Amino acid sequence: QVQLVESGGGLVQAGGSLGLSCAASGSIFNVMAWYRQAPGKQRELVAQLFSSGTTNYADAAKGRFTISRDRAKNTVALQMNSLKPEDTAVYYCYAASSMRSYWGQGTQVTVSS
Q1: Model pLDDT, residue 49
Q2: What CA–CA distance (Å, rounded) separates 29 from 2?
Q3: Helix (H, G, I), strand (E, B), or coil: what is residue 87?
Q4: Strand, helix or coil for residue 85
Q5: What region, left, alpha or beta, does residue 38 occupy, with left being phi > 0 and alpha being psi -120 to 50 degrees?
Q6: CB atoms closer than 10 angstroms to residue 52
Q7: In 3D, which of 36, 68, 53, 54 has the Cα closest to residue 45?
């Protein structure tokens, strides 16, 4: 049974930093990523990391967020710096194997101005 469990969300002031972590179990993933969904908006990609090591960031995340993976622990992290109120959203961990994709339950990130 594949499970993705996120941790690390919370409340932070604008300009601050926050780190998210996602622990994955049950499969080997070709890609792991973070998405977010703000109230009234569609879920959007924040950053993704392929098994090759290639990364891809949304324009809003470039230069401020860093995605990384610990293969030994099968975790993926998102380090978020210089946070802005518009980064407020529920952040979801995503992972895909060759067979199917999976989502975590989401963790709330709130950035106060």
Answers
A1: 96
A2: 11
A3: helix
A4: helix
A5: beta
A6: 8
A7: 36
> Which of helix, strand or coil describes residue 97?
coil
Per residue in 6-43, pLDDT (tens digit) is 999 999 999 999 999 999 987 778 999 999 999 999 99
What DSSP element (H or E) covers 55? strand 55-57
Are the C-beta atoms of 64 and 16 separated by less than 8 Å?
Answer: no
34-44 pLDDT tens trace: 999 999 999 99
- What distance in Å separates the CA atoms of residue 94 and residue 6, rounded to the nearest whole number? 10
Q: What is the dihedral of CA 8, 21, 4, 86, to 10 degrees?
A: 60
